[in-house]
Amino acid sequence: MLTAKDIMTSDLMTLQTSDDVASAAAILIDKRINGLPVLNEDGALVGILCQSDLVAQQKKLRLPSVFTLLDGMIPLSSTREMEQEMEKITALTVGQAMTPDPVTVSLDTPLDEVASLMVDKKYHTLPVMDGDRLVGVLGKEDVLRTLLPGAKA
């Protein structure tokens, strides 16, 4: 059975948390990729920036529902969720816009498990780790290539 190691893209492109959002968007568009791993200044994986993270900047802010009781307002939803949404909408750096602590796979993760994560959890880009070291990235296109004759094996 094919594993992440067999189909991953090992020619890594990454972003830094301090990179600006406009530059990151240009890379995603120019390279026609959905997402890139984000590294901190020590080179450790800290997040992933996907097109959906950047599209979120263009959406309307959902105002929380409130319940009024004795002239007081009680929020019915988490104020932390609204703060996170505001941070994404107003993000100027990759670190502010990214999804932190991304789900990762290992080199020996089977293809069916990778596909399940992508379909069931709606992950479009999965970093591939060898211990604590980022060694590759898997996108939906990598999985689709396995359907073609002569695909990486």
Stretches with pLDDT under 50, minimum 5 residues: none
Beta-sheet strand percentage?
15-25%
So, CATH architecture? Roll
- Proportion of residues in helical segments: 25-40%
In the CATH hierarchy, what is the superfamily? CBS-domain
Number of domains: 1
Number of helices: 7
**How many strands in all?**
9
Give structural notes.
It is built from 7 helices and 9 strands, in the order H-E-H-E-E-H-E-E-H-H-E-E-H-E-E-H. By secondary structure, it is α/β, with parallel strands linked by helices. The chain has a single domain, classed as CBS-domain. The strands form 3 sheets. The protein has a 4-stranded mixed β-sheet. A hairpin with a 2-residue loop joins strand 8 (125-130) and strand 9 (133-139). The model has no long low-confidence stretch (mean pLDDT 86).
List its salient traits:
9 strands, 153 residues, alpha/beta, CBS-domain, four-stranded mixed β-sheet
Brief digest:
The protein is of the alpha/beta class and 153 residues long. The protein is 33% helix and 25% strand.
